[in-house]
Amino acid sequence: MTIKEVELKTGLTRANIRYYEDQGFFSTARGENGYRNYSDEDVSTLLKVKLLRQLGFSLEDIHALQAGEQSLGAALERREAGLEEERTELDRALSLCRAMREDGADFVTLDAQRYLERLAQGAAVLDKDRDPVRVFPWRRLFAREIDYLLCLTVLTVLLQLFARLNLIRVNGDGGSLFLLHLGAMVVLLGMETLSLTLTRTTPGKFLFGLKILREDGSRLGFAEAGRRTAYVVLFYGFAQTLIGSRIPLLSIAGIGVLVWACWQVYHEKALFWEADQLYLDGSTKERTFWEDRRNYLRVAGYLAAWALCLGLMVGGHYLAARPPHRGTSLTAEEFVDNYNRFMEFSYGKENLSSRLTESGNFEEIPRENNAYVVHIFGESPVPQPFFRFTEENGVLTQVVLVRSYDSGGPITEEQTYGVGFPYEEIAVAARCFLWRPLGNNGVAELLEALQREKGNLRWERDGFMIDSQAGFSGYSFFGDDVLFAEEGQSQSYFVECTMKRTE
Known about the structure:
The chain is α+β, with helices and mostly antiparallel strands. 52% of the residues lie in helices and 15% in strands. Strands 7-8-14-11-10 form a 5-stranded antiparallel sheet, with helices on one face. A 3-stranded antiparallel sheet has the order 9-13-12, with no helix packed on it. The chain has a two-stranded antiparallel ribbon with strand order 1-2. β12 and β13 form a beta hairpin. The termini are far apart.
């Protein structure tokens, strides 16, 4: 018979029945469908336990009676003696009440708790025999965060490795960021459904010692786990969307949704996706999470999981940013491909106005829409830079960036303009040509040195040399990398940066 039928026959709650089974008074067989199948003998055992508990027998005494270690007659005799003692105490309490009434005791001085507990003793015994309600709303929330973070990390790293996703650029684009999180939600839906069906837990729940079962103790079916996860994903995704909206009031509302869910759980109210489901291995109101020293390791594991996921995404970003062609035997064609791909990675192909060609010049990219375009070199009369390539036996040995301009005479106020110094172009070229000896740290150091020395720099390292020469007249520096043409003066602009391998 089912647990509902046992409830009707015994008058016990499910919590009582599960508790007495956990205490070893009986062992329930399972059917082919995985559900518990209670027998008439189980019902008989439960009724005996209920009767003896209401008579005041301890669980240890009932176990001894069931095992035949003592006779019921002897146990009843001892219980009678105990009841006699209790009756004596009650008589003493009755006498005390009469004396208190005769003395005119005030309500404030009356200690009623002792007598109320004795009057309710019979019902209180069964209440104590309940399977304790496990309360851990924040653990469930943190476990959910880890599950989602793992899915987001897996999706992000795959896109970084195979689609060269620029996480920094995506994070600054609300639409792209929304699509990335939406993809992570889809991954979470599949991962959690399979994980709950096969293992009764998820990575995040496993970290915090949580499992999900049906109330009868069997694991969730695939459809049931999928339905539950779909509700959770929609609810959690809605809250995360509000939090990530960058609108203060909506962010507060999103946090409020998660707090409401935790509040419901703390007060033992099932959330709408948890019908006939229960959590196992959690802390209780009687035994808090921090009483178990092993749980400090769970907190450490939570922090370590965050660090690991962030580290993987940062590592994936650096892998995605690497030039596709690396080594000491690059061709000019491969250098150009490195350069264009890095600019697309940094700004997005749709936002670039020009691209480098194998001749060393930049050509305009035709646009068919009104997309925002990044003008890398600025709009000024100063021509774009160009590259000269030197190859020996098909191997690129030297790259020279040149940018020059002469106004031919003084300019008027209407002709003034701003022009950037090609720090970034030099750094990107060095990165694409000398990736192995330079690396990311070397490129950052080169860029900083160029800005500090205003473009005049000679850099020699093991295996390569960078020599940058710059000369300007009729300009004033505006910041670190922008020159402003001064009215009434002639402008002369010259930059030449040579990069070559010395080995």
